[in-house]
Fold:
Amino acid sequence: MISDDILTGQLAAPPRHDPVTSARAAAERLAERRRASAALLERARTLIDSSHARCMAPLRQHCTHGTAGR
Structure:
């Protein structure tokens, strides 16, 4: 069966490409990626710092080098 839209010529036009909207969407995606990257980097730094602190703790307990007067 043929659609009434086809018979009357009332087909919906495909959406037009809007460069401004497209650029805004791309900028928003980029900003979101940057925020996610910054959050991952901060998390990695936190993990490295805490790992380093745990690793160095035994040395701090037993090493007296450079701690005279404390």
Summary: The CA atoms of residues 42 and 48 lie 10 Å apart.
